[in-house]
Amino acid sequence: MNNKINLALQILPSVPSEQVYAVVDEAIAVIRDSGVKYRVCPFETVMEGTYDELMEVVRKTQEVCFKAGASQLLVYIKMQIKKDQDVTIEEKTGKYDS
């Protein structure tokens, strides 16, 4: 599985409500620093890359959330994978970009 896929990641950390955004921001920083193509959306962050590299990013986001004080995480992942083709963010949303 060396083709690019799309992976949508939503992490809901178990922390006091006033800390939720700060912990989620830590996870988004991991995604940003990973170098993969990504788009932050209101409820999830969508990434583009190979399966292996994106799953490594997912692992690191969870680690940083625990380091930031979360006692538990609810992690929701959605993936689009094509057998012999890349999947890109642009093919789904490019026509809506201004």
TrEMBL record:
One Pfam short name: Thiamine_BP
Residue ranges annotated for the Thiamine-binding protein domain, each copy included: 8-96
Gene3D superfamilies: 3.30.70.930
Superkingdom per UniProt: Bacteria
Alphabetical list of InterPro entries matching this protein: MTH1187/YkoF-like (IPR029756), Thiamine_BP (IPR002767), UPF0045_domain (IPR051614)
GO-annotated cellular components: cytosol
Transmembrane portions of the chain: none
Family: Belongs to the UPF0045 family.
Protein name: Thiamine-binding protein
